Amino acid sequence: MDSQHDSAPASRPPAPSRSQTALRVNGKPHTLTVDHRRVLLDLLREDLDLAGAKKGCDHGQCGACTVLVDGRRVNSCLLLAVALDGCEITTVEGLAGDGEELHPVQRAFLDRDAFQCGYCTPGQICSAVGALAEAAAGHPSHVTDPGTPSGEPVALGRDEIRERLSGNLCRCGAYPRIADAVEDVIP
After folding, report:
1. Tens digit of each residue's pLDDT (9 = 90 or more) over 134-168
2. 3-state helix/strand/coil string of the chain
3. What is the pTM of this model?
Protein backbone atom coordinates (compact mmCIF):
# COMPACT_ATOMS: atom_id res chain seq x y z
CA MET A 1 0.00 0.00 0.00
CA ASP A 2 1.15 3.38 -0.89
CA SER A 3 0.27 6.29 1.35
CA GLN A 4 0.87 9.92 0.73
CA HIS A 5 1.37 12.55 3.36
CA ASP A 6 0.86 16.22 2.88
CA SER A 7 4.27 17.69 3.64
CA ALA A 8 3.19 21.31 3.21
CA PRO A 9 3.51 23.33 6.41
CA ALA A 10 0.34 24.28 8.21
CA SER A 11 -1.05 27.60 7.10
CA ARG A 12 -1.84 28.73 10.68
CA PRO A 13 0.81 30.70 12.52
CA PRO A 14 1.97 29.22 15.80
CA ALA A 15 0.11 30.38 18.87
CA PRO A 16 1.90 33.07 20.86
CA SER A 17 3.74 31.63 23.81
CA ARG A 18 4.15 34.86 25.76
CA SER A 19 1.67 37.40 27.12
CA GLN A 20 1.76 40.72 28.89
CA THR A 21 0.94 40.13 32.54
CA ALA A 22 0.29 42.81 35.14
CA LEU A 23 0.95 41.93 38.77
CA ARG A 24 1.22 43.91 41.98
CA VAL A 25 4.07 42.35 43.91
CA ASN A 26 4.57 43.56 47.46
CA GLY A 27 2.52 46.65 46.64
CA LYS A 28 4.46 47.59 43.51
CA PRO A 29 3.02 47.28 40.00
CA HIS A 30 4.89 45.16 37.46
CA THR A 31 4.00 44.54 33.82
CA LEU A 32 6.02 41.71 32.35
CA THR A 33 6.00 39.69 29.17
CA VAL A 34 5.66 36.19 30.55
CA ASP A 35 6.16 32.81 28.91
CA HIS A 36 2.93 30.86 29.32
CA ARG A 37 4.83 27.99 30.95
CA ARG A 38 6.60 30.14 33.58
CA VAL A 39 5.50 29.54 37.15
CA LEU A 40 5.12 32.32 39.68
CA LEU A 41 8.03 31.07 41.79
CA ASP A 42 10.49 31.40 38.91
CA LEU A 43 9.14 34.83 37.99
CA LEU A 44 9.57 36.06 41.57
CA ARG A 45 13.06 34.63 42.04
CA GLU A 46 14.57 35.13 38.59
CA ASP A 47 12.76 38.14 37.12
CA LEU A 48 12.02 40.22 40.22
CA ASP A 49 15.00 39.16 42.39
CA LEU A 50 12.76 38.18 45.31
CA ALA A 51 14.55 35.16 46.70
CA GLY A 52 12.46 34.67 49.86
CA ALA A 53 10.20 32.01 48.41
CA LYS A 54 12.31 28.89 47.99
CA LYS A 55 12.32 26.17 45.38
CA GLY A 56 12.01 22.97 47.36
CA CYS A 57 10.22 20.07 45.75
CA ASP A 58 8.80 21.85 42.67
CA HIS A 59 5.66 19.69 43.09
CA GLY A 60 3.64 21.67 45.67
CA GLN A 61 4.37 19.20 48.45
CA CYS A 62 6.83 21.01 50.73
CA GLY A 63 5.45 24.56 51.02
CA ALA A 64 8.86 26.27 50.77
CA CYS A 65 7.48 28.39 47.91
CA THR A 66 4.36 29.60 49.75
CA VAL A 67 3.33 33.19 49.01
CA LEU A 68 0.03 35.06 49.25
CA VAL A 69 -2.06 35.72 46.13
CA ASP A 70 -4.88 38.16 46.82
CA GLY A 71 -4.41 37.34 50.50
CA ARG A 72 -4.70 33.56 50.10
CA ARG A 73 -1.70 31.28 50.58
CA VAL A 74 -0.58 29.35 47.53
CA ASN A 75 2.28 27.16 46.36
CA SER A 76 3.95 29.45 43.85
CA CYS A 77 5.74 26.54 42.15
CA LEU A 78 2.38 25.30 40.83
CA LEU A 79 0.83 28.52 39.53
CA LEU A 80 1.40 29.76 36.03
CA ALA A 81 2.30 33.44 36.32
CA VAL A 82 0.29 34.41 33.24
CA ALA A 83 -2.88 33.12 34.94
CA LEU A 84 -2.40 35.63 37.77
CA ASP A 85 -2.84 38.75 35.62
CA GLY A 86 -4.21 41.53 37.83
CA CYS A 87 -3.48 39.74 41.13
CA GLU A 88 -1.80 41.07 44.25
CA ILE A 89 1.19 38.93 45.25
CA THR A 90 2.76 39.22 48.69
CA THR A 91 6.05 37.50 49.45
CA VAL A 92 7.86 37.31 52.77
CA GLU A 93 9.81 40.38 51.68
CA GLY A 94 6.58 42.37 51.41
CA LEU A 95 4.90 41.39 54.67
CA ALA A 96 6.42 44.28 56.60
CA GLY A 97 5.38 46.81 53.96
CA ASP A 98 7.59 49.80 53.34
CA GLY A 99 8.46 50.32 56.99
CA GLU A 100 11.29 48.95 59.06
CA GLU A 101 8.89 47.19 61.45
CA LEU A 102 8.52 43.45 60.94
CA HIS A 103 5.12 41.84 60.43
CA PRO A 104 3.87 40.42 63.77
CA VAL A 105 4.33 36.83 62.50
CA GLN A 106 7.91 37.59 61.45
CA ARG A 107 8.59 39.13 64.88
CA ALA A 108 7.05 36.09 66.63
CA PHE A 109 9.24 33.70 64.60
CA LEU A 110 12.31 35.63 65.72
CA ASP A 111 11.16 35.89 69.34
CA ARG A 112 10.37 32.14 69.51
CA ASP A 113 13.43 31.06 67.52
CA ALA A 114 10.99 29.25 65.23
CA PHE A 115 13.53 28.30 62.62
CA GLN A 116 16.78 26.41 62.39
CA CYS A 117 18.35 26.32 58.95
CA GLY A 118 15.83 28.93 57.75
CA TYR A 119 15.15 27.38 54.35
CA CYS A 120 11.45 26.78 54.99
CA THR A 121 10.96 29.91 57.12
CA PRO A 122 9.67 32.31 54.42
CA GLY A 123 7.07 29.76 53.31
CA GLN A 124 6.16 28.95 56.91
CA ILE A 125 5.67 32.66 57.67
CA CYS A 126 3.53 33.31 54.58
CA SER A 127 1.52 30.20 55.32
CA ALA A 128 0.96 31.31 58.92
CA VAL A 129 -0.21 34.77 57.79
CA GLY A 130 -2.61 33.13 55.33
CA ALA A 131 -3.83 30.60 57.90
CA LEU A 132 -4.59 33.35 60.42
CA ALA A 133 -6.59 35.25 57.79
CA GLU A 134 -8.46 32.10 56.71
CA ALA A 135 -9.44 31.29 60.30
CA ALA A 136 -10.52 34.89 60.93
CA ALA A 137 -12.70 34.74 57.77
CA GLY A 138 -14.38 31.56 59.03
CA HIS A 139 -12.80 29.03 56.67
CA PRO A 140 -12.84 25.64 58.43
CA SER A 141 -10.02 23.12 58.33
CA HIS A 142 -10.15 19.34 58.54
CA VAL A 143 -10.02 19.51 62.36
CA THR A 144 -12.48 22.38 62.88
CA ASP A 145 -15.30 21.42 65.22
CA PRO A 146 -18.33 20.68 63.02
CA GLY A 147 -20.43 22.68 65.49
CA THR A 148 -18.58 25.88 64.62
CA PRO A 149 -21.07 28.31 63.05
CA SER A 150 -20.49 28.72 59.32
CA GLY A 151 -18.72 31.94 58.41
CA GLU A 152 -17.78 32.73 62.00
CA PRO A 153 -14.08 33.06 62.91
CA VAL A 154 -12.50 29.72 63.75
CA ALA A 155 -10.72 29.51 67.11
CA LEU A 156 -7.08 28.59 66.59
CA GLY A 157 -5.90 26.05 69.13
CA ARG A 158 -2.79 23.94 68.75
CA ASP A 159 -4.55 21.28 66.63
CA GLU A 160 -5.96 23.92 64.24
CA ILE A 161 -2.53 25.53 63.84
CA ARG A 162 -0.85 22.19 63.16
CA GLU A 163 -3.49 21.20 60.62
CA ARG A 164 -3.45 24.54 58.82
CA LEU A 165 0.35 24.56 58.56
CA SER A 166 0.67 20.87 57.69
CA GLY A 167 1.42 21.66 54.05
CA ASN A 168 4.70 23.32 55.04
CA LEU A 169 7.52 20.92 55.81
CA CYS A 170 10.51 21.67 58.03
CA ARG A 171 13.40 19.25 57.69
CA CYS A 172 14.95 20.58 60.90
CA GLY A 173 11.86 19.84 63.01
CA ALA A 174 11.13 23.35 64.31
CA TYR A 175 7.40 22.60 64.42
CA PRO A 176 6.80 23.17 68.17
CA ARG A 177 8.35 26.64 68.03
CA ILE A 178 6.55 27.47 64.79
CA ALA A 179 3.23 26.62 66.48
CA ASP A 180 4.30 28.69 69.53
CA ALA A 181 5.04 31.67 67.27
CA VAL A 182 1.62 31.42 65.58
CA GLU A 183 -0.11 31.13 68.97
CA ASP A 184 1.66 34.33 70.04
CA VAL A 185 -0.03 36.38 67.28
CA ILE A 186 -3.56 34.99 67.49
CA PRO A 187 -5.81 38.02 68.02
Report:
1. 999 999 999 999 999 988 999 999 999 999 999 99
2. CCCCCCCCCCCCCCCCCEEEEEEEECCEEEEEEEECCCEHHHHHHHHCCCCCCCCCCCCCCCCCCEEEECCEEEECCCCEHHHHCCCEEECHHHCCCCCCCCCHHHHHHHHCCCCCCCCCHHHHHHHHHHHHHHHHCCCCCCCCCCCCCCCCCCCCCHHHHHHHCCCCCCCCCCHHHHHHHHHHCCC
3. 0.89
